[in-house]
Specification:
three-stranded antiparallel sheet, alpha+beta, 43% helix, Ribosomal Protein S8, Chain: A, domain 1, KhpB, 153 residues
């Protein structure tokens, strides 16, 4: 039901745009809905630095979670932008961690949105040789990567 609601609203937005794109939902756990915009004009829904995609995702989360407990997370992707971004951030996180281990000094990222910071934290949580934490205030919040102080690392 929630997935259908998210799809219905996103299809309305896409149809109203006049662009050629389709909307579909992928397999997901009960607490997460993943919707994808595909087609010749799908890349227009990404926007500069994924800002349009972030806005669509935020809007759909507000709509489907109004008066709902527990909340359901809606993830929106267009033209595989988020999938490519995850790959890029995963590679970047490991390069940053390798740099930190090599020189023994902490490193900081540029400001990132919450989703991107979560990816960095999740990827590097698997490594025992580094630790991560976020600092700063939105929208300038960033990730700090430092050598692990854990004796097991």
């Amino acid at each position: 039901m929630v997935a259908e609601q998210a799809l219905e609203h996103l299809r309305g937005i896409v149809a109203g745009s006049g662009l050629q794109a389709d909307v579909s939902a992928g397999g997901q756990p009960l607490d997460e809905i993943s919707v994808e915009i595909t087609g010749p004009d799908a890349s227009y829904f990404v926007g500069p630095h994924g800002q349009c995609l972030d806005s669509l995702q935020y809007l759909l989360n507000l709509i489907v979670n109004k008066g709902r407990e527990p909340r359901v997370r809606v993830s929106v992707d267009a033209d595989k932008h988020r999938a490519r971004r995850i790959q890029t951030l995963t590679k970047f996180a490991h390069q940053l961690a390798d740099q930190v281990i090599s020189n023994g000094q902490e490193a900081v990222t540029d400001p990132m949105n919450p989703m991107e910071r979560r990816i960095i934290h999740t990827v590097l949580a698997e490594r025992k040789d580094v630790q991560t934490y976020s600092e700063g205030d939105e929208p300038g919040r960033y990730v700090v990567v430092c050598p692990s102080t854990d004796d097991n690392g």
